[in-house]
C-alpha cells in the first residue's frame, strides 16, 4: 500500500542551505532526489525545508508545535532536527544557549516531535574551519571546535537515551573540512552540501520503498 510520508527538516542556515547558490543546500538536493525517485510503485515523500538562519533551540521551541501541527501526514512523518551551531556560539562572552539549556531544549523538541513521528533524526553540528575557530566573526559570534565536540556529544547521548537516529555529518566533514566549508568557515560550500546529501540519501531512500 503506497503511502504519502512527510519529512520535516528543522534547523538553522545550514538546514536552509545558505551559501549554496548551485544546489540550494542538502535538504533541497534530497527534495529533488525524492521527486525524481517517485513513481507509481513507490511511496510519495514530501520534504519541507524548515530551516531559518541564525536561530537557536530557543527559537525552535517557539515555532515547533505550530509547524508540526500545520505540516504532517496521517500516513507517517519523519523529523530531522539540526541545531547547535548557533546555540554554542559565544556572544558577549557567553554561549547563546549553554550546554545544559541546549540539552533541555532538545529534549523538549523531541517530546513535540514524538507526537507526530516515530522516526526522529538528530543532525550533528559541523566542524568549523581552523582559521575561524576561536575568532570572533563579523556578527559578533565566536565558535570553537572544542565546543562543537561538547554539543555533539550532548546530541549523541540524547539519541542513545531516546533511541533516535544520529546523522554524523561532523565525521563526514572532519578530514576535508577546509575544502568543504565556504569562505566564512562555518557554512558548507556546494561541495560540502553535496557530501551531506550523499550521507543522507540512504536515509530517505528507505522511506520511498514500502
From TrEMBL:
It comes from Chryseobacterium lathyri. SUPFAM superfamilies: SGNH hydrolase. Residues 9-193 form the SGNH hydrolase-type esterase domain. Pfam families: Lipase_GDSL_2. InterPro entries: Ester_Hydrolysis_Enzymes, SGNH_hydro, SGNH_hydro_sf. This is Lysophospholipase L1-like esterase.
Amino acid at each position: 500500500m503506497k503511502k504519502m510520508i512527510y519529512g520535516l527538516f528543522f534547523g538553522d542556515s545550514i538546514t536552509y542551505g545558505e551559501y549554496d547558490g548551485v544546489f540550494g543546500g542538502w535538504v533541497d538536493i534530497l527534495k529533488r532526489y525524492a521527486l525524481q525517485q517517485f513513481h507509481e510503485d513507490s511511496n510519495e515523500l514530501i520534504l519541507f525545508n524548515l530551516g531559518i538562519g541564525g536561530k537557536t533551540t530557543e527559537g525552535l521551541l517557539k515555532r515547533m508545535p505550530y509547524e508540526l501541527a500545520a505540516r504532517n501526514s496521517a500516513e507517517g512523518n519523519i523529523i530531522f532536527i539540526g541545531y547547535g551551531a548557533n546555540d554554542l556560539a559565544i556572544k558577549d562572552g557567553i554561549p547563546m544557549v549553554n550546554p545544559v539549556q541546549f540539552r533541555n531544549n532538545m529534549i523538549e523538541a523531541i517530546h513535540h516531535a514524538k507526537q507526530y513521528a516515530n522516526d526522529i533524526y538528530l543532525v550533528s553540528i559541523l566542524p568549523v574551519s581552523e582559521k575561524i575557530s576561536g575568532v570572533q566573526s563579523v556578527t559578533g559570534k565566536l565558535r570553537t571546535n572544542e565546543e562543537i565536540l561538547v554539543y555533539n556529544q550532548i546530541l549523541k547521548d540524547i539519541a542513545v537515551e531516546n533511541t533516535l537516529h544520529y546523522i554524523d555529518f561532523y565525521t563526514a566533514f572532519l578530514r576535508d573540512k577546509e575544502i568543504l566549508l565556504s569562505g566564512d568557515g562555518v557554512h558548507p560550500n556546494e561541495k560540502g552540501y553535496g557530501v551531506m546529501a550523499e550521507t543522507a540519501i540512504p536515509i530517505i531512500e528507505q522511506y520511498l520503498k514500502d
